[in-house]
Amino acid sequence: MRTELEELAARLREFASVRDWEQFHTPKNLAMALAGEVGELVAEFQWLTADESAGLSEEELARVRSELGDVTVYLVRLADRLGVDLVEAAHAKLDESDRRYHPDQYRGSARKAPPLPS
After folding, report:
1. Do the beta carbons of residue 116 and residue 96 sit within 8 Å?
2. I need a surface site. Which of 32, 66, 97, 111 has the fewest CB within 10 A?
3. What are the residue ranges of helices labelled H in 46-85?
4. CA distance 9 to 83
C-alpha cells in the first residue's frame, strides 16, 4: 500500500514526464524553485503581527494555502529525484531534536542547543 506522499510523488513524476520536464527537474533547479516558493510563502506573512499571522482572513488563507501547495510540490519532487523518504527524514530530524532539546532544559525557551557530539 502506497502512502499519500508516495502517490503525490508518483503523480508529480507522471506530470513532469508527459511534459518532458525531467530535463529541467534537476536537484539544483528543484531546490532553487523550492527556495523561490518558500520566499513567496514568507511574503504572505511579511509585516503581519504574530496575532495577525494566526488569524488570517479567508482570502489571505487561500493565498497561503496556494503557496504551501507550491512548496509541497517542489519539496516532494526534489525528495523523489534524490530518493529521499521525506517521512523517514522528518522522523530522523525529530529524533535528533529530541536528543538535543531535553524538555527539562528547554521548556519555554527559544535558545538554540549546541550541536550533538560527533
Report:
1. yes
2. 111
3. 50-54, 58-82
4. 11
